[in-house]
Automatic annotation (TrEMBL):
Catalytic activity: DNA(n) + a 2'-deoxyribonucleoside 5'-triphosphate = DNA(n+1) + diphosphate
Family the UniProt entry places it in: Belongs to the DNA polymerase type-A family.
Residues in DNA-directed DNA polymerase family A palm domain copies: 688-891
The protein's name: DNA polymerase I
Domain 5'-3' exonuclease: 15-274
Pfam families listed in its UniProt record: 5_3_exonuc, 5_3_exonuc_N, DNA_pol_A, DNA_pol_A_exo1
Key words of the record: DNA damage, DNA repair, DNA replication, DNA-binding, DNA-directed DNA polymerase, Exonuclease, Hydrolase, Nuclease, Nucleotidyltransferase, Transferase
Coiled coil feature spans: none
Natural source organism: Sphingomonas sanxanigenens DSM 19645 = NX02
DNA sequence: TCAGTCACG
DNA sequence: GACGTACGTGACTGAT
């Protein structure tokens, strides 16, 4: 990593001491990295992160002003002088997570493997030891780097001493402290004392946060001066608090002060780097199976069993060189990058925007051609003197004109991580991007169920790399900036890294697709869907604001009335929306029997419980109250989640609501929908259904809804080979009636309802207790019913047994199209975890195949419509087994058979089903009317 | 940030 | 006998 040579004024210093805040690091690593386990089944996520970090530091030895001395500093005891000052200090800290505890000793192993000294001392926090070493080294004229991002340690920053945040690859100097806390490092202790710290239980002054603290300290100089000036301040809460809590503030000042004069357990010279003997390090890495690190050690990848998610052995990639990325601000340079991409035939790209969602504005584009060969093209940066280092940008139209032919060139593969987003943004500038590869989809097709698929997590897992966190670039909360306000240098570091990392991930993931049998689902199901979803997101659906606001007003009136009645019955006002308070009212004050407490000690007040009370004749007024709370709950839910919020989601430009679809959200392969979620718009109750009337077609158009009928049961009939079910579907019989006839020998409302419940229970992986609860019968009876079901439909029993034996053996299930879902808990020694995994594994092939089929229908829909001269038919929404379209009224009769045909034949020719897929279609001026 | 609740398939 | 024993999601609320 190139750094300016004049970074430190005292550059003549020959010795450079690195002090690693080991305790701080391990907590951050634990929370940021996936919960990996090694081959001994020990949790090692944090250890892996820690080891990769030490490796990175060891690499710095070769640099111009790299470390000559290094030590890892750890917390040893829980009791320090701060506890004597204040007994509540760090008192309410929860114990470390269970699977982190065994990793503490491993951290010491890792440190020893690198032959680094480990400093820990009874009675002192790591921070105090670090401060003492730092001061001693500075006094000798050494340079010091503290490897940490702890805010308390930032107090130590001065010329010759900086902090190094390895997770984000950032050096933190005095500027950073000023930016973050509004004061230079020497005054940071004063600010921290005023602010307090709820995690460590440093009291501070109530009502004073970072902003107020910085303002006070800047104005008065230090804490004592602030306290002295308090009586003269203008009357108000601040003045009061400063006077009342002056002593707590003084105590806080002592708590945040670092001890700089701790006797050094090891002399400075003892920290000199000796070089790393290979044998112990290799032994350590092999013990844990850290293959990517072993590979860097020069090991041949001959481990007997490849670690599941470790990727393919590749020659070592160099670490990301953030300052080596190019900022492209003139046309000639941009043309060179476009030409190089065409020359090479593939390019990774990423777009930066001023917001979230498919309708955000374009701010810049980054590209990567090879590791560390990446650039950023700023296009929409604007605003104040923040951008002092931003030279002229290429006008957006000119830049896109240069990139457009390359982005549309069928000979150039465009690689993105969640490229659907980039497709949407660029499409709104008239830029077509094709062909594409998507590393988030690849990861999902390879590793669903093993870990998440976000870029940061994949970089950590596959590349042992910590990406610059977006939050560290733009900030958080109110002070958060738009990316267009970020200066060019920092924007380039962040954006080009994203493209670089995407390219590196692609080189790891793409070669795994074929050997791991993921090519089919990637090429035939998920990848073709990416541009289709982008189109649907951009299309959006028209939502009528008036309908929603009318409903909001109606609901508000009813909610207010219910509130009064509920408080009346309770005899006291309380927050109805608080399960805790409601539980107390019902079960303590009103004395209703049978309350069940959850693990947090709160009474359950969910629908089942309230309905039980409502039907309980002994509950008296409690039954009435429960009924009213149920109504209140329903109306509050509808109002807050739908009629109120949805109005906010109407895009000002288009007058439509644009959801985002997640391709990798659901383990089974289903899509998810968010911001807003349009897959859970009410339909089951009459009141809720009114909300669907707000989803409307443009004048002259209609909404068309097409849904698969009973698709999961049909697939179960096919996959489990159940002749009676299959024949019933072939004949077009009512499937629940048929089940009722088989199970109970007669069909009526009651037996049909029970049969329906059992049919669904089968899809979800049944247990006698679950079914017993649903049917309100005894577990024994439920078991008898399950046995009878299995006897009548023996294929189901076989399907379940085979699915379970396969998932236990392979660790994953597959759909008819080859989609894998991994179940890491299938062999858990914790029974309920294992049983949960078993039920999910029984369901996954069925739910997943259904998802595969509708995805294929979606990918084929637009070409089929175009073929039929129906390009004006727009596909807007997918709700798992339903597709929603908007089309000119005049085209309805021609569109219906095309849509019906595409959906019904979507499995073919890859999969030949032995049951027909039924598709039902309705139309109307609104989504509500189309059902 | 978590737990509880509830909207959907 | 526990496990708030049916699968998969996302959003909102109150409490910490």
């Amino acid at each position: 990593m190139a750094r300016p040579a004049n970074r430190y004024p005292a550059a003549m210093a020959s010795n450079h001491l690195y002090l690693v805040d080991g305790s701080g690091y391990i907590f951050r690593a634990y929370h940021r990295l996936p919960p990996l386990t090694n081959k001994h089944n020990e949790p090692v996520g944090a250890v892996y992160g820690y080891t990769a970090m030490l490796w990175k530091l060891a690499d710095e030895v070769h640099k111009a002003d790299g470390p000559t001395h290094m030590a890892v500093v750890l917390d040893k005891s829980s009791h320090t002088f701060r506890n004597d000052l204040y007994d509540k200090y760090k008192a309410q800290r929860p114990p470390p997570p269970e699977d982190l505890i065994p990793q503490f000793p491993m951290i010491r192993d890792a440190t020893r493997a690198f032959s680094l000294p480990c400093i820990e001392e009874e009675g002192w926090e790591a921070d105090d030891l670090i401060a003492s070493y730092a001061k001693a080294a500075l006094a000798q004229g050494w340079q010091v780097t503290i490897v940490s991002s702890d805010k308390d340690l930032m107090q130590l920053i001065e010329p010759g001493l900086d902090l190094y945040d390895t997770m984000n690859n950032r050096r933190l100097g005095a500027e950073h402290v000023v930016e973050k806390f509004g004061v230079p490092p020497v005054q940071l202790g004063e600010v921290l004392a005023l602010m307090g710290d709820s995690v460590d239980n440093v009291p501070g002054v109530p009502g004073v946060g970072p902003k107020t603290a910085a303002k006070l300290i800047t104005e008065h100089g230090d804490l004592e001066a602030v306290l002295a000036a308090a009586p003269d301040m203008k009357k108000g809460k601040l003045r009061e608090n400063l006077i009342e809590h002056a002593e707590m503030a003084r105590l806080s000042r002592k708590l945040v002060t670092l001890a700089c004069d701790v006797p050094l357990p090891e002399p400075l010279d003892g920290l000199a780097l000796q070089g790393i003997p290979e044998a112990p390090l290799r032994a350590f890495l092999e013990h844990h199976g850290f293959r990517s690190l072993l590979a860097r050690l020069g090991a041949v990848a001959d481990a007997p069993q490849p670690a599941p998610a470790a990727g393919v052995a590749l020659p070592e990639d160099p670490p990301c060189d953030h300052d080596g990325y190019e900022a492209v601000t003139d046309l000639a340079a941009l043309e060179r990058w476009a030409a190089a991409a065409r020359e090479q035939g593939f390019v990774a790209l990423d777009t930066e925007t001023d917001g979230l969602g498919p309708m955000a504005g374009l701010v810049g584009i980054s590209m990567a051609l090879a590791p560390n060969r990446a650039c950023y093209v700023p296009l929409g940066h604007r605003g104040g003197d923040l951008l002092a280092d931003t030279p002229v940008q290429i006008p957006i139209d000119q830049a896109l004109a240069v990139l457009k032919p390359m982005l549309a060139d069928p000979a150039v593969l465009k690689i993105g991580h969640n490229i659907k987003y980039d497709l949407s943004i660029l499409a709104r500038h008239g830029v077509v991007v094709a062909p594409i590869d998507d590393t988030i989809v690849m990861s999902f097709n390879l590793d669903a169920g093993r870990h998440g698929h976000g870029m940061d997590e994949l970089a950590a897992t596959h590349l042992a790399h910590s990406c610059i966190a977006f939050k560290d670039v733009v900030g958080t909360g109110k002070a958060q900036k738009g990316f267009h306000e970020i200066g060019l240098r920092e924007a380039t570091r962040y954006a080009a890294e994203d493209a670089d990392v995407t390219l590196r991930l692609w080189r790891r993931l793409k070669p795994r697709l074929s050997p791991e049998q993921a090519t089919r689902v990637y090429e035939m199901v998920d990848r073709p869907l990416v541009p289709v979803l982008s189109g649907m997101e951009r299309a959006g659906i028209k939502v009528d604001r008036k309908t929603l606001s009318r409903l909001s007003a109606e609901f508000a009136t009813q909610i207010a009335a219910l509130e009064g009645e509920i408080h009346g019955i309770a005899g006291t006002p309380f927050t109805i929306g608080s399960p805790k308070q409601l539980g107390d009212v019902l079960f303590e004050q009103m004395g209703i029997k049978g309350g069940r407490k959850g693990k947090s000690g709160v009474y359950s007040t969910d629908v089942n419980e309230l309905e039980r009370i409502a039907a309980d004749r002994e509950a008296g007024a409690g039954a009435e109250l429960a009924r009213k709370v149920l109504d209140w709950r329903q109306l509050s839910k509808l109002k807050s989640t739908y009629t109120d919020s949805l109005q906010q989601e109407i895009n000002a430009e288009t007058g439509r609501v644009h959801t985002s679809y997640g391709l990798t959200g659901a383990q089974t392969g289903r899509l998810s929908s968010n911001d807003p979620n349009l897959q859970n718009i009410p339909v089951r109750t009459e009141t809720g259904r009114q909300i669907r009337d707000a989803f409307v077609a443009e004048p002259g158009n209609v909404i068309l809804s097409a849904d698969y009928s009973q698709i999961e049961l049909r697939l179960a009939a096919h996959m489990a080979d159940v002749p009676q079910l299959r024949d019933a579907f072939l004949r077009g019989d009512d499937i629940h009636n048929m089940t009722a006839q088989e199970l109970f020998g007669e069909v009526n409302r009651d037996t049909r309802g029970r049969a329906k419940t059992i049919n669904f229970a089968i899809l979800y992986g049944i247990s006698r207790w679950g079914l017993a609860g649903r049917l309100e019968i005894a577990p024994d009876e439920a078991q008898a019913m399950i046995d009878r079901y299995f006897d009548r439909f023996p294929g189901i029993r076989t399907y379940i047994a085979e699915t379970l034996s396969s998932v236990r053996e392979n660790g994953f299930t597959t759909t008819l199209f080859g989609r894998k879902t991994h179940f890491t808990r299938i062999k858990s020694s914790v029974q309920h975890e294992r049983q949960g995994a078993e039920r999910a594994a029984i369901n996954a092939p069925i739910q997943g195949t259904s998802a595969d089929i509708i995805k294929r229908a979606m990918a084929r829909m637009n070409p089929a419509l175009a073929e039929a001269g129906l390009s004006d038919v727009r596909m807007l929404l997918q709700v798992h087994d339903e597709l929603v379209f908007e089309l000119p009224e005049s085209l309805v009769d021609r569109a219906k058979p095309v849509i019906q045909h595409v959906m019904a034949t979507a499995a073919e020719p890859l999969v030949k089903l032995t049951v027909p897929l039924g598709v039902e279609i309705g139309t109307g001026t609104s989504w509500g009317a189309a059902h």
